[in-house]
Every structure is written in C-alpha cells, then in structure tokens.
Design goal:
Elements (H helix, E strand, L loop, with lengths): L8 H68 L2 H8 L5 H7 L2 H7 L3 E5 L5 E6 L2 E2 L9 H15 L16 E7 L2 E9 L16 E7 L2 H11 L2 E6 L7 E5 L5 E8 L3 H50 L9 H13 L5 E9 L1 H8 L1 H18 L5 E6 L2 E7 L3 H16 L2 E3 L2 E3 L2 E8 L7 H17 L5 E3 L2 H23 L3 E10 L4 E12 L3 E3 L1 H11 L2 H16 L6 E5 L2 H4 L4 H12 L6 E5 L1 H6 L1 H13 L3 E7 L5 H7 L4 E4 L1 H5 L5 H17 L2 E5 L4 H10 L3 E3 L9 H10 L2 H4 L1
Helix pairs in contact: 1-7, 9-10, 10-11, 13-14, 15-17
Length: 731
C-alpha cells in the first residue's frame, strides 16, 4: 500500500481560492438578509416580553417576602405566644405546633429559631424537625445583624401604625446561608391586647428562614409562569434578576429561561430560508469535498497523536501528563473549588500473581469503566500508572465528594469477571480539597498522597480526607525517622529492658528482651511508635540485628535463664537472616539453646511457603521457636499443624478478661489442653492480678509473664530480682 501524502495548508488554500470569493459574497448577502429580518421581527417583541417577565419575578419575590412577615406576625402578635416563649422550661410541643414545626408544615418555612432578649437561641427547627440549638450558628451572621437593627427600631416603636398589611415592626433581608440564597425575617413577640407589660429591649424574637431553593422556585414558576427559574452567582445575559442585601450588595441572581415570542416567529421563518441556504451549502460542499476529506484525515492523524501523548493506552483514560495539565487549569480558575482523589487498588498484586498480567490488565480496564460510570462528564479520571488512579472533581461540595468516595468503595467490592474467574479487590482513597485560586498543584497532590497513605495505614479499603494534623504527623514521622536512623547507626538512646517469665513455683525461668528508645528531646518513645517507621523505612533489619546482638550478650549474664527475642516480619524476610543470626551468636558466644525466637502469625502469613524451611533451620541450630499472641489470628490451629514450634504464648487480651468473661477462661483452658496434647510449652502473658495468676496456676499453665510479677526492667534490676527470689511468695 502506498503512503498517503500530507496536504499542506498552502495547498488547501489554493484549492479553495477559485470558489472562495463568490461563495463568500453569497453567504454574506444571505446572512445580512436573514439577520436584518430576524433582528427587525424579534428584538422589539422579545424586549417587551422580557420586561414583563422581569416585573413578574420582582412581584413574586416581594410578595413571598411580605407573606413570610405576615405569617410570622399572625403567630408573634399574640399574648399566648409572648407568655409561652418566656416560660421555663419551654413547652416544646406547644412551640412545635404554633411557632416551629407548624411554620414548616403550613407556610413551608425551612428553618425557625426563637431568640431570647440577649439574642441567644432557645429553640431551633430545621425542615420540620427540632434540632440542637447549636444549629443556629450557620445563620447567626445575618440573623444577629437584623436583631441589632430591630432592637434599635423597637426602642422607638413597636407597631407600624398601619391597619393594612403588617401591624408590628420587623427586620428582614436577603442573605447567603451555607452557600444558599435565603430570605431571613425577624419579628418580635408582642402583646396583642396590651395587657402584658414588656420592658423595651426585653423582646424575644421569632426568626424565619426561607431558602430560595427548588421548592420556592417551583412555586414561583407555577404561580407567575416563569420558565425554569434557578439561582446563580453570576448574571445570565438572557434573563436575570439581582438579589440584594440591605447594603445594596448583590448576593446572586434569579435566572430563568425567557419567553421569546420573537424568536418563535423567527423559527417559523428559518425553514423557508434554510431551503436557500441548503442549495448554497450543497454547492459549497461539492466544491470543497476533496479539501474537506484531506483536512479530516489530517485532523484524525492529529487526534491520534494527541490520544497517544495524553491518554493511557490500556484504558483510554487521561494519563499523568494530561492529568497534571487539567489540574493546573482547574486550579487557575477564578473561583476554584477542586477536590482531588488518589486511588490505589488493594490486593491487585495478588491478582497479577495468581491469574497473570492479562487478568490484571483486564481488571484495570473494568475498574476504569466503573469509575467513569460514577463520575460526571466534567470530572477528570486519570490513570497515573499501574493500579494508581486519580479523579479531579470541580465545583462539588465536600459531602458530594465523600459520597463519590463511598460509592467507589462499594462498586470496587463487587467481583470482577476476568479470564473466566472472579477477582476480588479493594481500594484505598486519599482526598484533598483545594483552598482556592493559587493552590499549588504539587502541594494538592502531596496532601492527597498523604491521605492515601493514611487510608492504607488504617487498614485499607477506606477513604481519608487530608487534614493539617496529617501533615504534622508526616513531618513528625520524618523527624523521628531521621533521629531513629542516627540512633540505629550510633546505638545512642537504644536500650533493652527485660521482663521476667515466671514458672509455677515462682522462680524466674527466662526473660523477654524488649526494645526501648530514649529520644534526647522527646524522652522515652514506645516501640509502637518507632517500630512501624523502622519497618517501612528499611531500618528494621539493622535495628533487629542490634537487638539480637544485645540480647545474645545479655543471655551470657544469666546462663540459667532463657532469653526471648521478638522477630519482626521484615527482619524475618531479610536476605540471609539465618546467616546473620548465626554470625551474631558466634561473635557474642551465646548459646542458641538459651535463645527463644518469638514470631507472630503475620510472619507466617506473609510468606508461608518460605517460613517453614527457615523455622526448621533455626530449630536445627538449637533455637526455640515461640508462636506469640496465640489465639488472635484466624488460623492459629492451622499453623500449629503446618509449622513446628516449641512454645505458644496466650495473648494477654484473653488473660485480662479471665475474671469477667467466661469465654476467655474457656479459651485459655482449651489452649493449655491443646499445648499438653501436642507436647508444647504454654505461657501466658499480660498477667496483672492475683486472681489471674491463681486461675492460670490451677489450669496448669507452666510459665507466666506480666506486671503482676514485674514490668520490663533494666538488666541490673533483673540481677537483683534473681538475688532476692522475689516471686516465690507471690506465686
């Protein structure tokens, strides 16, 4: 096949030139004729129609405002209301039926608040239900300004002096409440008969809030024949009516679809004129067909190139380059309200490993399709690479973004049908919201990434919204990492404490080495804070080696005791872990028979195929293997069958509840029986009371450990405990 030649812009212009002038003249004359006819026939008619519609909108708003004030007056210019609102405690049912819920039911008032003489809320109703008084806060701004003005008026007069319309004074204004246009009206509670004395300045107020929302606009549309009324923050050129606050500032606009009779006339004329334009169009089409075809091919080539440059080849979604460009564009807009979601699939690697990379690609495509079905056309969904996605949401409220995140979590739980099998994955989502125009795109991505990390760290399959506290935690985490790296490299601040393990007769038979870190500025930092950081930053392997070396040295101080050392999953999976351990034993001249290595189910779960051979080699070298935290995992019994261990430790959570939960006692007894049956030593940790100790002793537990005997202490303290034989009487 021959390659098609490209047509240059100059060649296309040369092909058009012979017909360009006559075509241009004809089109200009026709356009001028059509424009003159349409302008003449529609402009005056549409102008008159618009003026009438504008007047109707004005009347509709003014009448609605007046109606709210009159409805309020009917319930506030009333002796009973004056007495009931001052009664302590309030008769809330009466207030509901006469001043609160009743206003929503019969007058369609969205919110009602009662204010005392100090303008503090004593009753709050929203959408037909009583709500906490704190709900007044979102309307407090305009309400308190009106209350101030009304009290100034009440100092002079209480009645308008008019027998027609309103009889009591009031204060009202248009305002923006929670981003929504609303009419806010205040009326004082006054005695209709004049028989109740009420000092000036002590009046209670009735506050009514009527949102100019869909319900209000729908009523206005039906009553005044206004098509498609809506609220907008900027004027619509076709039809808009400004809403002003008391200072004359524009809060927004009521816009509608104008009735244009002139335009309708024009639409009847257009078909006739279209026949003439069609003839001309056919002629032009025949003349420019060849050029158009060439131009289409060029445009297709350009579109293909753009698609390859800015879209992901697998899913067809925008790629990282287009994502960054659209994020910058979104943040550059004048009133930017941007939410960024970063998504990462959970257990995606498992799908690739078990079903193959084609299945992983199919899952990625299906997930992209599900995201597309959940988002708006104005949102941007991008695949950043691998199983990482991003969504840019413009102009949405935070609640809408959170609902989107929850829907994503719901749909990702549904099984994916790929390669004749079902795959199940989850998703972690990090969200960040732009502060406004001028937000740095990289900063927004960084915040969303921090939130994504928090979602993963919190157990995955969840969404997390970025907060400033997360940034502080990241900075603190970075500082702790740097200081921990220095401590690992120098050994400064690191120390081992030892917690005794006691036999049934009260003798100390062993100790568990527990790492402590004394930070030069922050003091003693618990392992729960720095060990996860060490595991994630690659410090766990050298830190674990330091612990093993110090524990092996300490074991020589107490040759009659065993030394228990905890192994991290990261440390266990490190290359040549066994070789490193044996080298430490040789250097310290420690006896492997006195060393007990404690592993958790996580060590076995993460890599159960490799764990068995490693444990077997450790046992062959003389080390004792202890399964720690026994009973907390779902597969402990299965591990006892598959892996050879020498000892199991009952998790402290069961020991703590021996006195108040019979189930814990049953579980502990069952574990002890299981240990006897399998020839294993069973130890209990977390012993804190004499009752727990006595229960375990009666149940036949051979070893115990906990604060009842001793907390983790220094090596010197262990030596004194051995000398004093402290635990004989206690046991």
């Amino acid at each position: 096949m021959k390659a098609r030649g490209r047509i240059s812009p100059q060649g296309a212009l040369g092909a058009i030139r012979p017909v360009a002038f006559p075509t241009t003249v004809i089109m200009i004359l026709l356009a001028a004729l059509i424009g003159a006819v349409l302008q003449f026939s529609t402009s005056a008619t549409d102008a008159i129609a618009f003026a009438r519609q504008n007047q109707r909108v004005h009347v509709a708003i003014e009448e609605s405002v007046r109606r709210v004030r009159i409805d309020q007056e009917a319930s506030t210019y009333w002796d009973d209301a004056l007495v009931r609102t001052r009664h302590v405690p309030l008769d809330l049912e009466w207030i509901d039926n006469n001043l609160g819920v009743w206003f929503h039911t019969y007058y369609h008032i969205d919110e009602v608040y009662l204010l005392d003489a100090r303008d503090r809320p004593i009753y709050a109703m929203q959408n037909g239900r009583r709500v906490p008084l704190a709900s007044f806060g979102h309307v407090a701004g305009p309400a308190l300004r009106l209350a101030h003005d009304l009290r100034a008026t009440l100092a002079k007069k209480r009645l308008t002096g008019s027998d027609v319309g309103e009889r009591t004074v009031g204060a009202s204004a248009m305002a923006i409440v929670d981003g929504r246009p609303a009419f806010v009206s205040l009326k004082p509670f006054l005695s209709e008969t004049g028989n109740i004395r009420q000092p000036r300045g002590s009046e209670y107020f009735h506050l009514a809030v009527r949102y100019l929302d869909r319900s209000f606009l729908s009523n206005m549309s039906e009553a005044y024949s206004i098509d498609g009324p809506r609220f907008s923050t900027s004027p619509v050129a076709a039809a808009s009516y400004p809403l002003l606050d008391p200072a004359g500032r524009t809060l927004g606009y009521i816009s509608w679809t104008p009735f244009e009779p002139g335009k309708q006339v024009a639409e009847r004329v257009v078909p006739v004129l279209s026949v003439a334009l069609l003839v001309v169009g056919v002629l032009i089409g025949l003349l420019l067909l060849r050029i158009r075809r060439s131009r289409t091919e060029l445009e297709a080539s350009r579109a293909d190139a753009e698609q390859l440059a800015f879209h992901d080849t697998l899913t067809g979604l925008p790629n990282r380059a287009l994502f960054e460009d659209r994020l910058k564009l979104a943040l550059s807009r004048r009133e930017a309200r941007i939410a960024l979601l970063l998504l990462d699939l959970d257990r995606f690697k498992h799908v690739n490993d078990t079903l193959g990379h084609p299945a992983g690609d199919a899952l990625i495509c299906q997930f992209g399709e599900r995201l597309t079905s959940l988002t708006r056309s104005s949102d941007t969904i991008a695949r950043l690479g691998g199983d990482e996605f991003a969504i840019i949401v413009e102009g949405a409220m935070l609640a809408d973004v959170e609902r989107l995140a929850m829907r994503i979590l719901e749909v990702v739980k549904l099984p994916f049908e790929i390669c004749g099998a079902q795959a199940h994955v989850g998703a972690s989502i990090g969200m960040a919201v732009a502060a406004g125009q001028g937000t740095n795109p990289l900063e927004l991505v960084r915040k969303a990434d921090i939130a994504l990390y928090a979602a993963k760290d919190g157990g995955r399959n969840a969404y997390v919204l970025f907060s400033p506290e997360m940034d502080e935690r990241v900075k603190l985490r970075r500082t702790v990492e740097q200081d921990l790296r220095h401590a690992v490299n120098t050994g400064s601040g690191l120390v081992l404490h030892y917690q005794p393990q006691v036999s049934r007769d009260g003798a100390i038979v062993g100790v568990e080495a527990l790492l402590r870190w004394k930070h030069p500025e922050r003091g003693l930092i618990p392992p729960s804070e720095f060990v996860p950081i060490a595991e994630e930053t690659g410090l766990m392997v050298p830190l674990g080696e330091w612990v093993l070396r110090e524990a092996c040295r300490a074991s020589r101080r107490w040759p009659d005791l065993f030394m228990a050392v905890n192994l991290s999953p990261v440390q266990f999976r490190a290359p040549d872990f066994i070789g490193t351990l044996m080298r430490i034993v040789r250097e310290t001249r420690a006896d492997p028979l006195k060393i007990q290595l404690e592993v958790t189910e996580r060590v076995l779960l993460d890599d159960d195929d490799a764990a068995g051979p490693i444990l077997e080699k450790l046992r062959e070298a003389g080390f004792k293997i202890v399964l720690d935290d026994f009973g907390t995992g779902y597969s402990s019994l299965a591990y006892l069958r598959r892996f050879h261990v020498d000892k199991i430790k009952i998790d402290g959570s069961f020991v703590q509840h021996l006195a108040d939960q019979s189930d814990s006692g049953i579980i502990v007894t069952a574990v002890l029986a299981l240990g006897w049956a399998m020839g294993l030593t069973v130890a209990a940790e977390g012993v804190e009371t004499a009752e727990q100790c006595n229960f375990l002793d009666r149940a036949g537990c051979k070893e115990m450990q906990g604060h009842y005997f001793s907390p983790a202490v220094s090596g010197d303290r262990i030596a004194r405990l051995l000398r004093d034989c402290r635990f004989s009487a206690a046991a």
